[in-house]
Amino acid sequence: MRHADAPIAVTGAGGFLGRAVVTHLRVAGEPARLHAGPEGAPGPAEAARFDIRDAAALRVFLDGARCVVHLAGPPDARAAARDPLSTLDVHVGGVAVLMAVAAAAGCGVVLVSSGLAAGGLAWPSAGVYPDAKAAAEAVARAYASQVPVVILRPANVYGAGAHPTTLVPELIALARSGRPVEARAPEATVDLVHVEDVAAAVGAAIDAVGRCPSGSIFPIDTLERPTAGAVASFIRACASGTFGVDAADGPAAKVEGRPGGALPGWRPRIPWRSGISELFRTGGP
Fold it and tell me: Is residue 82's pLDDT more than 80?
């Protein structure tokens, strides 16, 4: 691994999670090199813009970096279902190019995948998205003997700026508009993890690259698993100004522990009720 002063490269830095990761790195005093997507993609002015499958551009981007955090790719499972070929091409093809270039450059990798890749928590209408993430993980692990890589599987990430079709923003939008706040699949089990906790997990994963076995996979979750209906019930309570425990109660799945083990140096700080309450107080999504 390169010297600790070498920069951290971040792909997809203009996205919801990317912005949080960049903020976390800057607060930690980590030098960062940013990529925001292809030409015209939103993101910081200083961010490089190129297609993540462009090997030549990636070689320049990773030159001298000690680690790359890979976040680039379509984040919306429902949109992925509408365009499965593009989703597979960017997620799987992009990771294949990234891993080959990182291996040649001697640059460690933190691959941010999805809890959906593990199976068992698939959300209705997720379509090809879980398969794309699982395939990308397989590609990354195929390079594990050539370059140190850590894989993170965040659960249902929420927070200010989350994609509007994901569970929490969708329910909050219903509440703010005065429409009935009902989850699409009320019995589905979810694990809501705040975006700031995920950004902190990325920081811990950067530290873990080269120290834990290459190809290690870590779930990034809270182990609080309410139903989507329970989340909707709490958001209704938030909208009405009542934050009582009774309003937040609902059936939840029991979880014995993280089957993949815990990421060294990380634990979630923000319970889902606290995170959602804060979104209401601050005018979040």
Answer: no
